[in-house]
Amino acid sequence: MGDDDRRGGGRRERAALAARPWRRFLAVLRGPGWARVALARRVGAGALATVAVVLAVAPDGSADQAPVLVTVRDLAPGSAIRAEDLAVRTWPSALVPAGALRAPPDAQGRVAAGAVRAGEPLTDLRLVGVELTVRAGGPDAAAVPLRPADPAVAALLAPGTVVDVVTLGPGDAAPGADAGDGGSGARVIAGRATVLTVLPAQTQGVGRSGAGPLVLVALPRDAATDVAAASLAGEIAVTLR
């Protein structure tokens, strides 16, 4: 046998081997139903394996992320926030709440309006500030501190509570009282004040001896001025709505 015959025979054998898988595939398609089902399962398994490999080596789809400032421990209402209370975490951007704070300096030294859970993202409305004051009292609102004459009343107040601010001033005679007996009457000097937060007595630095909790309320600016002046002149009380 010549070299040409041997080379020709080798090509025919390779062609035959290459054609066998395709012939086997056609034979399965023409064969019984169970064979076609088995083939479909194998093809599906191969496709799933390919997809898994592609996902494993593809770039991470979670690249759209943003820093979020969270607390690392529970905070009580009125707590002054310290650097050690904070941490920066990376969240998917779609889950970051509106008004979220991004870095420790945005919250350090500020006051938590309400209780805050560890791991909770801090937003502008979770802290005492302009944003919270305007949201609670309107566009011209101001925050004013007052100390109720009865400290126990502060325990009934929480962020969002609506109260009327009452004073007992000289010259405001109570109905039926004799003007000459030194009587005085209570009057509402500001209605519908919204409590922003309550600062526990132990967190306050300076103040008169035995001072009770300090209540921070949001009011229209004119009313806030009246309340601030009244708190300097005499005792203040609040009534819950």
Could you describe the 3D structure shown?
The protein is α+β, with helices and mostly antiparallel strands and 241 residues long. The chain has 3 domains: 3-57, no CATH class; 65-126, Type Iii Antifreeze Protein Isoform Hplc 12; 130-240. It is 31% helix and 23% strand. It is built from 4 helices and 7 strands, in the order H-H-E-E-H-E-E-E-E-H-E. It has helices at 3-30, 33-57, 130-137, 221-233; strands at 65-71, 86-92, 141-146, 162-169, 185-199, 214-220, 236-240. The chain has a 5-stranded antiparallel β-sheet with strand order 3-6-5-4-7, with helices on both faces. The protein starts with a helix and ends with a strand. Mean pLDDT is 77; it is low at 171-183 and 203-209.
| Number of separate domains | 3
Instruction: Give, in order, the helices and strands.
Output: HHEEHEEEEHE
Q: What shape does the CA trace take?
A: elongated
Sheet-strand content, in percent, reads 15-25%
Biggest pleated-sheet summary: 5 strands, antiparallel
Average pLDDT taken over every residue: 77
Strand order in the sheet with the most strands: 3-6-5-4-7
Termini separation: 113 Å
Q: Give me the number of helical elements.
A: 4
What helical percentage do the residues reach? 25-40%
Q: Measured on Cα atoms, how large is the radius of gyration?
A: 38 Å
Number of strands: 7
Low-pLDDT stretches: 171-183, 203-209
The assigned structural class equals alpha+beta
